[in-house]
Amino acid sequence: MANWVPFVFLSLFSIFVLTFMVVKNRHLSAQIILFWLFISGLAYVFEYIIFVLFNSYTYHPHILSNNYNDSVLGSISSQAFSVPVAITYIVLYRLTISRILIIISVFFLIETWFIHTDLYEHHWWESYYTSFFLIISVLLAKSWWRFLGDRSNHYIQFITLFFALSTITLSFAWVLSSLLNLYIIPLNHFSNPVRDLIAGNAIYIWFTTYFYSLLIYFRNGDWKFALWSVLFLFTVEFFMVQDGVLIMESPLLLFTLPLFHFSMIFAGSYCYSQYFNTNVEFHKKGLSYK
């Protein structure tokens, strides 16, 4: 069996489960998708620390020619689909402790099988670490799901928006930077050039995502303000190019990032308006910035 088959199967199965949850719970569809993206965003932070910075393990789906990008793709299969969808399912259906432990045991068995079939290898990570962090993640996710029900808690709304949107931005930025090589922001720390540019690019994309989140949270739907925000980021990126922090093969590619910013702001605004109405509440309370 080819290495890519289990990865693709688990991803497709996770998408099927997510679709099932959305279809069967239409009244909660926006919250389910937002929550899944939020959990994925947190998983990306966790993966950045242990996988990118500290080289915890390597995936071997054998889909991409570059070994590090291939491993990142395996990581996305796990951290954007399998784990977040499972946690969302557990929280949505309020599974009992015994059923939660069964699901965590299944992940442990899958990870063990992946290791023995060379689909995945540990460097310093251990399988029981995965089980421990899954338990912690479920406990935190249960609490956060309850917090989401409180529409008046603006801290919860902003944090949820940031991490949910970061799932989208980091995924697309990885394609533009690592796969298509339209731009690179090297960290100049790791010997592996792909690992180095992923580490540097993620930091900048988290910065822009925070900027998007502020814009959407306080000025959702104000496209004049969005235009000025993108122009500001474009100016920052122009000087980054001048200083050699942002590297592009052609100066014309500099216009790729403003298009990316506009797309992400639009996606974030749409997702946010589907579930939250903070902007309206701020106007009513006189808290909007003018």
Shape: globular
Order of H and E elements = HHEHHEHHHHHH
Could you tell me the mean pLDDT? 92
Spans where pLDDT lies below 50 across 5 or more residues: 278-290
Structural class: mainly alpha
Binned, the helix content reads over 70%
Instruction: Quickly count the helices.
Output: 10
Q: Per DSSP, what share of the residues sits in E-state strands of 2 or more residues?
A: under 5%
The largest sheet, given as strand count, sense and whether it forms a barrel, is:
2 strands, antiparallel
State the separation between the terminal residues, measured CA to CA. Answer: 60 Å
User: If you compute it from the alpha carbons, what radius of gyration comes out, rounded to the nearest whole angstrom?
Assistant: 20 Å
- Tell how many strands the DSSP assignment holds: 2
Spatial order of the strands forming the largest sheet: 1-2
